[in-house]
UniProtKB/TrEMBL annotation:
Segments forming domain NAD-dependent epimerase/dehydratase: 2-237
GO BP of this protein: L-threonine catabolic process
Role: Catalyzes the NAD(+)-dependent oxidation of L-threonine to 2-amino-3-ketobutyrate, mediating L-threonine catabolism.
InterPro entries in alphabetical order: Epimerase_deHydtase, NAD(P)-bd_dom_sf, NAD(P)_epim/dehydratase
Natural source organism: Scophthalmus maximus
Record field: catalytic activity: L-threonine + NAD(+) = (2S)-2-amino-3-oxobutanoate + NADH + H(+)
EC numbers on record: 1.1.1.103
Protein name (database record): L-threonine 3-dehydrogenase, mitochondrial
GO molecular function, one term: L-threonine 3-dehydrogenase activity
Amino acid sequence: KVLITGGLGQLGVGLAKLLRRRFGENNVILSDIRKPPNHVYHHGPFIFSDVLDYTSLRETVVNNNVSWLVHYAAVLSAVGENNVALAKEVNITGLHNVLDIATEHGLRLFVPSTIGAFGPSSPRDPTPDLCVQRPRTIYGVSKVHAELMGEYYHHRYGLDFRCLRYPGIISADSEPGGGTTDYAVQIFHAAVKSGLFECNLRSDTQLPMMYIDDCLRATLEFLEAPAETLLNRTYNIHAMSFTPHGLAQEIQRVLPDLKVTYNVDAVRQAIADGWPMALEDTAARRDWGWKHEYDLAELVQAVLAHVTTGNQLARAH
Ligand code: VAH
């Protein structure tokens, strides 16, 4: 069975859906500390589980015979800068709990890392798998810590630790939870609803991004890859890079009335300025066959189609 922590964030429900199609509805357990929306209760198991509560997390793993753990519970970059204590607690103490439990019970452990694990002194275009990592956010520091601890536990105790560095993920029916790349999700909703969008990053800020379907498929494929094919335990994955200006232009091809204004948030801008502009991901493509399907044009089409239908449904109710 698979347990997903932080299951009600931007990625959990979508990943559960994909994994349930593959492994059966009851074999994937979503967990979080929040109360889920009704549709989540109606599709497959959901349980309360707090990654900071070691005993209860362990109980969940044992009682449900969990064999894979996907650790999505985390405080993202912008929220973390506003609450360092919380980010430290969730991202570092929470990870320690998960690592110990995964090791003790022989689990396969997936932890997402991020472009945020790099910093201003990393090569930025493209950023290789192995290079200087001196991030300037608590989020980034905690993710480098997770990469290193996971790899250490792998070498020291044989833990089957697997880690992908995700770019900014663009989803249509789930909201991002306080990151620096959130604008690239919000712009779609604004474009469809009001035609006006105020962007909190500079128009020329280029960051790596990926459509959620590619991200979730990458996660499943990587989780299923035979251990002997994985020469690394932490891999960059890349799909596309764009700026707010470039994304707005692509959306305007479909919705020409979209107006974007810029009101830069200093905290987010400083974070983005130290992050990669593109990730180098040849190792992932070589070792376990990673291949993205969505470039910018396909991404915009897919997200606009979802957001427009969602909006029509909401209006019909
Ligand atoms: C953030 N979306 O902005 C996250 C992510 C790609 C960056 O880790 O904090």
